[in-house]
Design goal:
The structure is a single chain. By secondary structure, the chain is mainly alpha-helical. It folds into 2 domains: 2-92, P-loop containing nucleotide triphosphate hydrolases (Rossmann fold), CATH 3.40.50.300; 108-167, no CATH class. The protein contains 7 helices and 4 strands. It has helices at 11-19, 55-63, 89-92, 108-122, 131-149, 156-159, 162-167, and strands at 2-4, 28-30, 45-48, 82-85. The chain has a two-stranded parallel sheet with strand order 1-2. The chain has a two-stranded parallel sheet with strand order 3-4. Strand 3 (45-48), helix 2 and strand 4 (82-85) form a beta-alpha-beta unit. The two termini are 41 Å apart.
Length: 168
């Protein structure tokens, strides 16, 4: 395994070795160095560990795995490759039925959390200041705080928002 980034001396020599299926490294970790302009048909797995906001770059990155390769795996031709998308790029670029980008689809948990937050906000209005609704609002706030408190701070998606989470 080899990390390939712009801080190492002679990254092209490592890229050249990675491009040769008979040499090591056979696993390369890259930050913006192998996204485009490299042809390694033997690539069987891609791991996206960053958000990509350019549709062209996204498809270029996917293209790293689309190259055909005869006899790559136990003598069999390459029939597929895997993409592990840890940052939701596919959801970001998901296409709607009419060929345009669809918005990111919120999970049921996310929609429920947001609905409860909207209810907490709305229940502040003077018209809802009955004892029963005040108690319900307190219950909703406690539930939301509990959900935020129990987030896994080591989770990659959570780590991106720790500043906001800690603020609220």
């Amino acid at each position: 395994m080899q990390v390939i980034d712009n801080r190492i001396n002679y990254p092209q020599s490592i890229i050249d070795k990675f491009s040769d299926p008979k040499q090591f490294p056979q696993i390369a970790i890259s930050v913006d160095m192998l996204d485009t302009g490299i042809d390694v048909p033997e690539i069987l797995n891609l791991v996206f560990f960053k958000k990509v906001f350019s549709r062209a770059k996204f498809w270029q990155m996917i293209g790293r795995g689309t190259r055909l390769c005869p006899g790559v795996l136990d003598g069999d031709d390459k029939a597929q490759f895997y993409i592990f998308d840890l940052c939701g790029n596919f959801a970001f670029f998901r296409m709607g039925a009419k060929g345009r980008e669809a918005g990111t689809v919120a999970t049921l948990q996310e929609r429920m959390f947001n609905t409860k937050a909207e209810m907490v906000y709305k229940l502040q209005d003077m018209v809802y200041q009955t004892d029963e609704l005040k108690a319900y609002r307190v219950q909703l706030v406690q539930d939301l705080v509990s959900k935020v408190t129990h987030l896994n701070r080591d989770n990659f998606a959570v780590k991106q928002h720790l500043r906001t989470i800690d603020k609220f």
